[in-house]
UniProtKB/TrEMBL annotation:
Protein known as: Cof-type HAD-IIB family hydrolase
Organism: Pegethrix bostrychoides GSE-TBD4-15B
GO cellular component, one term: cytosol
UniProt entry tagged with the keyword Hydrolase: yes
GO molecular function: magnesium ion binding; phosphatase activity
Protein's UniProt keywords contain Hydrolase: yes
Record keywords, A-Z: Hydrolase
SUPFAM superfamilies according to UniProt: HAD-like
Gene3D superfamilies for the chain: 3.30.1240.10, HAD superfamily/HAD-like (3.40.50.1000)
Length: 298
């Protein structure tokens, strides 16, 4: 497992003068660019701006809702499309001059959403899970509880309590972009095990962004495919020219895709093992350290 004091061979390979320069930097938000304060640390912001000044395109790839992530996109004055909902939605924000442009939007089917809701509402799970449906960039919940309240406070998105979530499936034009179930870590791990046995990867994508968040999306959705789409289809950048930084299992695919994949010091061991380099903890400005190492000093 790479760490800050070992894996010299990997560092030497990445520091080689033959390596192409980074042209796209893909950043996760929570646990990576944003710590407990729910703000971007000034040192991290300064490093991102320094990378931009060198001509590097910077993009956000997050599990957050588009509206929740937008303030960070605006604070950093990014010009790239925003990758939200684990990459299910890739969209340019609207400006005073141009309307919003959707590059990709992959949703779950309504039938699948109902099947998952049936599973989550089994008697032994009903009171242990807080289920969130995301439709048309709105957050729908069964009822407001402690978990949903905490989530809403951090995301700054007011949830819409509808009682039976099946009712919104009948009314909405679109099916959910993402389904989130919040529960205790052991229960979330059990959900991943059980549902991966029921639904192969070709049918649904399951991941967890933090230990208590179980997330389900369209099978073609993950941050790796989103970053690939942005890099190769929109920006015409090769994987070797991409650097991705993340801190959890939902970041694995983009870390593995990038020529330079960086895991945060606060990441689980399995995520660190997939990375080329491990940055310091998010509260120690790990993103700034990674940018300095692989972009500013390259």
């Amino acid at each position: 497992m790479p760490d800050l004091a070992s894996d010299l061979a990997s560092d030497l390979a990445l520091d080689s003068t033959s390596a192409p320069p980074i042209r796209l930097l893909a950043l996760d938000l929570d646990g990576t660019t944003v710590g407990e304060s729910n703000q971007i640390d000034p040192a991290v912001k300064q490093a991102i701006q320094a990378a931009q000044a060198q001509g590097v395109q910077v993009a956000i790839a997050t599990g957050r809702m588009f509206r929740s992530a937008l303030r960070f996109h605006q604070e950093l004055a990014l010009t790239t499309p925003l990758m939200a909902y684990q990459g299910a939605l890739i969209q340019d924000p609207a400006t005073a001059q141009t309307p919003a442009t959707i590059h990709r939007h992959l949703t779950l089917s309504k039938a699948t959403a109902r099947q998952l809701l049936d599973y989550f509402e089994q008697a032994h799970l009903l009171e242990q899970l807080s289920v969130h449906f995301y439709i048309n960039d709105q957050l729908y919940i069964r009822q407001l509880n402690a978990e949903s309240s905490a989530y809403a406070a951090r995301s700054n998105i007011p949830p819409i309590a509808v009682g039976d979530l099946r009712s919104i499936l009948g009314e909405a034009d679109l099916a959910p972009t993402k389904i989130l179930a919040i529960g205790q870590p052991d229960l979330v791990d059990q959900l991943l095990t059980d549902l991966r046995q029921q639904y192969p990867p070709a049918e649904l994508y399951f991941t967890k962004s933090v230990a208590t968040f179980f997330e389900a999306t369209h099978p073609q959705v993950n941050k790796g495919s989103a970053v690939q789409y942005l890099a190769e289809q929109i920006l015409k950048v090769s994987p070797e020219q991409v650097m991705s930084i993340g801190d959890n299992f939902n970041d694995l695919e983009m870390i593995q895709y990038a020529g330079v994949g960086v895991a945060m010091g606060n990441a689980p061991d399995a995520v660190k093992a997939a990375a080329n380099w491990v940055a310091p903890h998010v509260e120690m400005q790990g993103v700034a350290a990674a940018i300095e190492k692989f972009i500013l000093l390259a």
